[in-house]
Amino acid sequence: MTPAARTARIRTFSVSGLCAAGAAAAALTLVPSPAHASEPASPGVATSAGVSAAGVSAQADALADKAGQAATEQDDLDSWIRESLEVMKAKGIPGTYEGLHRNIMRESGGDPEASNGWDVNAQNGTPSKGLLQVIQPTFDAYHVSGTPQDLTDPVANITAAANYAADKYGSIDNVDSAY
Question: Is the pTM higher than 0.90?
Answer without folding.
Answer: no
